[in-house]
Amino acid sequence: MSFSLRAPAALALLAGLTLPAPALAQGGPPPKEGWNARVGLLGLVLPEYEGADEYEVKPVPDLEITYGETFFLDRRGLGVNVLNTRSLTAGVSLNYDGGREENDNDALRGLGDVDGTMVGTAFAEYRIGQVGLGLDVTGDLLGDGHDGVTATVSAIYQARPTDDLMLFAGPSATWASKDYMRSYFGITPAQAERSGRPVYETDSGFKDVAFTVFGIYSLTEDWALTGIAGYKRLLGDAKDSPIVDRDGSADQFFGGLGVSYSF
Q1: What count of Cα atoms within 13 Å lies in the side-chain half-sphere of residue 178?
Q2: In tens digits, what is the pLDDT along the chain, a chain of 263 residues?
Q3: Is residue 36 within 8 Å of 262, Cβ to Cβ?
Q4: Which of 17, 102, 167, 173 has a 20 to 30 Å separation from 114 between CA atoms?
Q5: pTM of the model
Q6: What's the CA gap between 195 and 111, in Å, rounded?
Q7: What are the structural domain ranges in the chain?
Q8: Which among 96, 94, 102 is positioned nearest to 117, based on CA atoms?
Q9: CA-wise closest residue to 2 among 218, 185, 150, 208
Q10: In CATH, what class is 7-262?
Q11: Are the C-beta atoms of residues 150 and 175 closer than 8 Å to each other?
């Protein structure tokens, strides 16, 4: 079994749960020519909304379909590697961002929904030995949701303690535009009137830093267990938002276990 995981895709898992590309040098056999597929299910424990201090269990499909080293359909969405060399990979992908619903948590009452929308991502990763340095830039393509842009920088280290176990670990940091911050952490006058909260204005800036550990254990040639654990700290205007500072927490934890089948 060969494993494929790009740094920003793993480290941004809980940002959009579209677990978020070009493969970090994995060791083991290279991908087969033509079609490759992996299907599974990942059970996640994560905050009810970004900044919440209450948690939920959420099942997430774990899907990865590739054609050669160029086209893919996975947690990042539908995409293509435009550049793919031994040390540098870059490309674009299209995905759906589900937004946030007002009824996700009592703290969001009166704030309305952040509608779902189509998002586009431009990504790049530079590999140095067992380390991958990545950049993802994602934007709302339709203006129907948060109407903003995020940029995530990350580093991930790969280790293979045994023939059956692959581990990935590393930090990341995410910057968000003013529109994104306003959608998820701001409170407009209309929202303040409905919710009884004070008006809260936000600006662009770094939204969070995180550290994530991801593992894949091969049970057989086709079956594998997957696990993820991490911590994210909200920063700046995200940390100081009333839905975080008063009703939630800037400290965000997440984890999950799953199983997958490759063919």
Answers
A1: 4
A2: 444 444 444 444 443 433 333 333 333 344 556 899 989 999 999 999 999 999 999 998 888 899 988 999 988 899 999 999 989 999 999 999 999 999 999 999 999 999 999 999 999 999 999 999 999 999 999 999 999 999 999 999 999 999 999 999 999 999 999 999 999 999 999 999 999 999 999 999 999 999 999 999 999 999 999 999 999 999 999 999 999 999 999 999 999 999 999 98
A3: yes
A4: 173
A5: 0.86
A6: 7
A7: 7-262
A8: 96
A9: 218
A10: mainly beta
A11: yes
